Amino acid sequence: MESLKASDVMSNHIEPVRCGTPLTKVVKTLLHNHITGLPVVDEHRKVIGFISEQDCIHALLVSNYHGEGDPKVDDVMFRNPVTISAEMSVVDLAQNLGAGKPKVYPVTDHGKLIGIVTRTAILAELAKVGFGLEVSKTA
């Protein structure tokens, strides 16, 4: 358990969001992948922001109310996201989870996005290791 690293539980099959992406496309990606947020990257895969379900809900409510059209991710994203290293211990990460903390962590290597770790993935791994439960990783 102590030797588990973020790279052992990260997902790398979900494409990150790029600046200029319409929010409706971000929402479709979040819903399709059953995930609560995604990193926003530049053309070199450097993480420059993060967009969450909550950000999308608020922005879509405001834009629909004011009839402003489809907002872009640039207008809504959080610009100083927390990122983690692929070598970070899952135990250390799990101990830092809590109210007000991110539910999705971008994993970077030399500043470039290589995957994401979700609370769901950590929970599934802890359940499997601690109790021998086999849980499918969908997030």
From TrEMBL:
CBS domain mapped to chain residues: 10-68, 77-135
Keywords assigned: CBS domain
Spans traversing the lipid bilayer: none
One Pfam family from the record: CBS
The keyword GTP-binding is assigned to this record: no
Domain of life the protein comes from: Bacteria
InterPro entries from the UniProt entry: CBS_bac, CBS_dom, CBS_dom_sf, Diverse_CBS-Domain
Protein name: CBS domain-containing protein
Naturally occurring in which organism (per UniProt): Marinobacter confluentis
Lineage: Bacteria, Pseudomonadati, Pseudomonadota, Gammaproteobacteria, Pseudomonadales
